[in-house]
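User: Sequence recovery, please. Input:
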């Protein structure tokens, strides 16, 4: 009896799994709100240099004060970061300052915004930008009294969210059977999709950045209260020499699933028999170095690192700059969130029929192609540019959906958390680098898009080097991963007979039977 058979005995798709997956997915619902919160709390309102105090207090109208204080840019709009060194009251006698330039008046001297900025609060009553004139966790961030404090709490929030999603995914995947793993993984991903739509609605109703931050943070306290109920993975408990607790957890699962008779049959000897091979190869304690211990593990870790980095890099490069599309950020947030629905359906079908490897490759390459094509579209064709960007974002969402499931299936139970932690760190690194690439656009407007589009295409090649996991049980030890090998046969990776004979002669019949 394998562990998968033992899971079927206690109930693999019963009431326990439904409650377990649902409750673990609830924090993911609100995680999207924090990941994309900067689009709203750090939105840049229309602004220009603050006028001179003596002008603003006079009887002049707001339009006259602006005209006498702030020059116009090339598009005929007030300059954001420049103002006249001295008020140009003579400009008020003409129709506009532009007409004066046409008459040959020499350029008037300007300066930076010495007295700060004036922000248009029509759309948003307050953002972190308008409050602290800044560029860029949780509940505490809403009460920040300085930009530095805000950044510190946001960093803490990001660290907590990273751990939250990794633990949630590992606990989900280790309590469900192979046959429903793809569907359940996608269903969990839809919680994140729904969170993006919820963020747009909440941000539309709450226009102050402090109250908005508080609103999307408080629900996590509810998840904290019931999180103590979760059962630890029985696989992990066995492999870490905690078999007695594993037996108790399996009995609890059986009772929740209404299988009390089966719960009474489970004992320590049955558990040992079902995972005898895994326990023999398990050394008890593992570290991040085990991710590189064998050639197979090194290949998996390097390739997954590239996949996660580029997916996150391009995803947040598109998603964190919604103001550039020239439409309401609330509308574009809904569109960007809604595109995940068909994208994840298609990638789920693809993973179920073709496998994780080709699905991951195609999602990445297609995303990169959409972004690169967008570079060739003129800026005045906003509808087409937005459509291509939305399609690219949908492909990246599909790639993320595949990433979580694929990585969890590639890494063995004994180091799954280490592996998921590593690739998640690479994804966070990609997300950090993404905004910095936008700065390159000041000198070369095409360069950020070229980088955002090129990275997924390159990582698609790395994804091609990964082994397939379709319809295969979860590996529990590094030995299980090595035994899979890297030789293709009938679209599935099978171990070489000679290699397996060296590791375990009893496994040679496996290839011969196939």
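Assistant: Recovered sequence (514 residues):
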């Amino acid at each position: 009896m394998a562990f998968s058979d033992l899971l079927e005995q206690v109930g693999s798709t019963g009431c326990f799994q439904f409650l377990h997956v649902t409750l673990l997915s609830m924090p993911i619902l609100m995680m999207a709100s924090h990941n994309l919160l900067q689009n709203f709390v750090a939105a840049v309102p229309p602004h220009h240099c603050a006028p001179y105090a003596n002008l603003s207090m006079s009887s002049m109208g707001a339009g006259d004060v602006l005209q006498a204080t702030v020059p116009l840019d090339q598009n005929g709009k007030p300059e954001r970061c420049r103002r006249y060194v001295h008020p140009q009251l003579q400009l008020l006698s003409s129709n506009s300052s532009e007409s004066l330039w046409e008459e040959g008046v020499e350029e008037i001297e300007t300066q930076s915004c010495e007295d700060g900025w004036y922000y248009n609060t029509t759309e948003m009553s307050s953002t972190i930008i308008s409050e602290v004139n800044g560029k860029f966790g949780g509940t505490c961030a809403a009460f920040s009294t300085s930009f530095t404090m805000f950044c510190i709490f946001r960093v803490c929030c990001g660290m907590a969210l990273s751990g939250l999603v990794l633990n949630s995914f590992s606990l989900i995947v280790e309590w469900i059977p192979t046959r429903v793993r793809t569907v359940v993984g996608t269903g969990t991903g839809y919680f994140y999709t729904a969170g993006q739509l919820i963020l747009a609605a909440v941000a539309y109703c709450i226009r102050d950045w402090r109250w908005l931050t508080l609103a999307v943070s408080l629900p996590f306290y509810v998840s904290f209260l019931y999180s103590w109920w979760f059962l630890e993975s029985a696989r992990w408990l066995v492999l870490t020499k905690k078999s007695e607790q594993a037996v108790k957890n399996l009995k609890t699962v059986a009772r929740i699933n209404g299988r009390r008779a089966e719960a009474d049959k489970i004992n320590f000897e049955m558990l040992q028999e079902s995972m005898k091979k895994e326990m023999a190869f398990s050394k008890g304690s593992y570290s991040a170095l085990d991710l590189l211990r064998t050639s197979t593990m090194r290949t998996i870790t390097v390739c997954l690192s590239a996949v996660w980095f580029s997916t996150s890099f391009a995803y947040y490069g598109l998603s964190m700059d919604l103001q550039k599309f020239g439409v309401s950020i609330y509308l574009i947030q809904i569109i960007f969130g809604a595109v995940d629905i068909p994208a994840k359906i298609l990638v789920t079908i693809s993973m179920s029929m073709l496998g994780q490897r080709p699905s991951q490759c195609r999602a990445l390459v297609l995303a990169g192609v959409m972004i690169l094509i967008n570079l060739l579209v003129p800026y005045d064709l906003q509808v087409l540019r937005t459509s291509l960007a939305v399609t690219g974002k949908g492909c990246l969402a599909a790639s993320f959906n595949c990433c979580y499931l694929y990585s969890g299936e590639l890494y063995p139970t004994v180091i799954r958390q280490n592996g998921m932690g590593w690739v998640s760190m690479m994804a966070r690194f990609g997300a950090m680098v993404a905004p910095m690439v936008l700065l390159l656009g000041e000198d070369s407007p095409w360069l950020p898009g070229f980088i955002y589009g090129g990275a997924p295409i390159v990582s698609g090649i790395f994804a091609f080097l990964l082994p397939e996991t379709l319809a295969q049980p979860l590996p529990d030890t590094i030995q299980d991963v090595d035994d899979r090998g890297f030789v293709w046969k009938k679209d599935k990776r099978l171990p070489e007979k000679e290699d397996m004979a060296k590791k375990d002669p009893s496994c040679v019949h496996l290839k011969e039977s196939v």
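Confidence is low (pLDDT under 50) at residues 100-106, 487-514.
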